[in-house]
Amino acid sequence: MPGLFEGKRIVVTGGTGSLGQVLTRRLMTGVEGVPESVTVFSRDEAKQHYMRLEFMQKTAATDEVIFQNSRQRLKFMIGDVRDYASMVRGVKDADIVFAAAALKQVPSCEYFPWEAVRTNVEGAENLVRAISEFNLPIETVMGITTDKACKPVNVMGMTKAIQERVYINGNIRAPQTRFIAARYGNVLASRGSVVPLFLDQIAAGGPVTITTADMTRFLLTLDDAVDAIFAAIRSAAPGETYIPKCPSAKMTDLAAFLIGDRDIETVITGIRPGEKIHEILLSEEEATRTIQGHEGYFALRPMLPELAAPVDQPALVGDYSSENALMTPQGLAQFLETKIPGIVGQLYLEA
Predict the structure, then answer these.
(1) Averaged confidence pLDDT in the chain
(2) How far apart are alpha carbons 220 and 212 in whole angstroms?
């Protein structure tokens, strides 16, 4: 049987981000089928340049490298999801679009809320509108969302919650395309996440800053996130959101593990603007329309009755909160040693 992505023309918006790069790398391995092309669509020319060199296994290059771009299976396109015409150009020949472009840092979105709206909401609308108005023969749009979209209290979560609804509605506006999503929690070792922050603080001799002693977070790796995305591509029905079953940890336990036996102080700084103490991947309200999806994932079914076909299994009961999925300190240590041994070991040596 041909692989999931065999012969497909794939576009990854926000492809130069932490997730975008790991997703692109996984697509290029051909393990799930060899795509005809993978196009990284983003507005950051510098990140595109260095990403191009990495995939070409070059440490430096002159400008002529970019002129060979159209001949490569991995392509790069400068564009902005906020710009409708740019979005049309970016996806007009795609079979599958992974929509990973986002403003995702909570404090930045609080201070620049309209910028978050433009990227996270208008960007999604531009993609749906392009497919609908031009009747583009795109098979699947895969929206990348976050636990912060569930019962949102910050701008980032609010914009991602609306983004989820925009993509769900896309199934009605452009019924030839399947719009689905994957929602997950804090990604270990991604840019702006807590593990690199703690390790940088440890390498500098401390202190390690924790916003509140009670804070908990779901934890998964970038590869875990890509696994959830691929599972949704394989199995999700139109309008469904796939959610992995993630463990969670107290941030104080995480800091203690990374500090180890060093004499490094921890300081409680107070919650940042827009921050939650506990995250939720599924609310009580959403649980009533959530079922056990394929491959062990939760499948959050769409609210719109036009898309919610009957299913022959009971819905879940209760929410899915990071407060209720906690690993013990010993369990966390085993989890981290399994998931990110290279990062932890390397930075321990540097510190």
Answers:
(1) 89
(2) 21
Interatomic CA distance for residues 347 and 345, integer angstroms: 6
In a domain, 43, yes or no: yes
> In whole angstroms, what is the distance from residue 300 CA to residue 290 CA?
4
Residue 110 lies in a domain: yes
Given this model, what pLDDT does residue 98 score? 98
Task: Answer whether residue 193 shows pLDDT above 80.
Answer: no
* Residue 305 belongs to domain spanning: 9-185+219-246+280-315
The answer to whether residues 79 and 86 touch, using CB atoms and an 8 Å cutoff, is yes
Q: The CATH number of the domain where 23 resides is what? A: 3.40.50.720
By the 8 A CB rule, do 174 and 97 touch?
no
Residue 12 CA to residue 101 CA, distance in Å, equals 8
Total domain count for the chain? 1
Residue 200 lies in a domain: no
End-to-end CA distance of the chain: 49
Number of C-beta neighbours around residue 118 at 10 A: 18
148 is catalytic: yes
341 touches 269 (CB < 8 A) = no
Tens of pLDDT, residue by residue over 87-118, are 999 999 999 999 999 999 888 999 999 999 99
Under 8 Å between Cβ of 26 and 226:
yes
| DSSP annotation of 283 | -
Q: What is the pTM of this model?
A: 0.89
Sign of the torsion formed by the C-alpha atoms of 64, 26, 8 and 232: negative
Q: Residues of 291-314 as b/e, b for ≥16 C-beta within 10 angstroms?
A: bebeeebbbbbbeeeebeeeeeee
Q: Name the phi and psi angles at 108, rounded to 5.
A: -60, -40
If DSSP states are collapsed to H, E and C, what string results for 211-247?
CCCCCEEEEECHHHHHHHHHHHHHHCCCCCEEECCCC
Q: Catalytic residue among 148, 151, 160, 250, which?
A: 148
